[in-house]
Every structure is written in structure tokens, then in C-alpha cells.
Design brief:
Shape: elongated
Order of helices and strands: HEEHHHH
Largest sheet: 2 strands, antiparallel
Oligomer: single chain
Number of helices: 5
Strand content: 5-15%
Structural class: mainly alpha
């Protein structure tokens, strides 16, 4: 392999030298002669230590018309059209049984079970009960409220 490399490069090996940067970053090893017949990442290039050459990333194909992008800023004109009487955050309302009520997640799950538990699907009701059991154990084992 060495003989093939020497034959391929000819007398390129003496042309390699350490180049120092102005900022004092230490020695940078690389070819002095531009246009080597082999790629720099090849061991035949005659570099004293191997380094990886990164390629620039390929441009990503982005869908400009996703729902999130298409509806971005859709409520920005509420203040203009409504005479600045209402803020867009006031248009976002939660379920009736949560308006004006405060509490932690366990209390909220218990309240949901009391109010809409009889109208829930069986799988959702089962998941809600599992969440209540988990939170009940967690709140009783940890925290300042013990």
C-alpha cells in the first residue's frame, strides 16, 4: 500500500508541512499543494494524522402549508376588527366544569369524574381512574402536603 501511495503521490510527501494559524490555535495539518489527485480523507493523501471532513447538510424539504403554519396569526386581527375590546386569550375557553375553579391535577381529575364521568367512554373512564389512583398514591407518599 505504501509503494502504491508513493507512486500515486510522487513527491507530494515533502510538500506537506504544518501551518500555524494567526490566532495561535496550534498546528493545522494539511496539504500545501492544492488539487491533490486523491481526496483528503484518504490515507493515501499523506496527511500525518487523520481528520474527518464534514459535508454541509442537505437542504430540508419543508411543507409550508402545514396546519400550524397555515393558521399562524389567524386571530391577530381580532383587536383591529373588535375595536380592541377583547383580547384573543379571552376567546380561549375551557370546559364548563373547570371555569373559575382552581386545584391540582388530582383534584381536577376527581372533579372531572364527578361531573362528566357518567357520560365518558369506557376506555377514557378507565384511564381517568388509573390516573386518579396513581396521583393519589403519589400525593400521599411525597410532597409537603403529607
Amino acid at each position: 500500500v505504501r509503494a502504491a501511495g508513493r507512486a500515486l503521490l510522487g513527491r507530494a510527501a515533502p510538500l506537506l508541512r504544518a501551518e500555524r494559524s494567526i490566532s495561535g490555535g496550534g498546528a493545522r495539518w494539511g496539504p500545501v499543494r492544492p488539487g491533490l489527485p486523491v481526496p483528503l480523507s484518504s490515507p493515501l493523501a499523506g496527511l500525518t494524522r487523520a481528520f474527518r471532513i464534514k459535508e454541509p447538510p442537505k437542504p430540508k424539504q419543508v411543507d409550508r402549508w402545514t396546519k400550524k403554519r397555515a393558521l399562524f396569526g389567524v386571530y391577530d386581527n381580532v383587536g383591529i376588527l373588535g375595536g380592541f375590546q377583547i383580547h384573543p386569550k379571552n376567546l380561549i375557553v375551557g370546559p364548563k366544569w373547570l371555569r373559575g375553579w382552581r386545584g391540582n391535577e388530582l383534584q381536577r381529575c376527581i372533579r372531572k369524574k364527578q361531573v362528566v364521568g357518567d357520560r365518558m367512554f369506557l376506555e377514557d373512564y378507565h384511564k381517568l381512574n388509573k390516573r386518579i389512583r396513581y396521583l393519589y398514591r403519589r400525593f400521599n407518599r411525597t410532597g409537603k402536603h403529607r
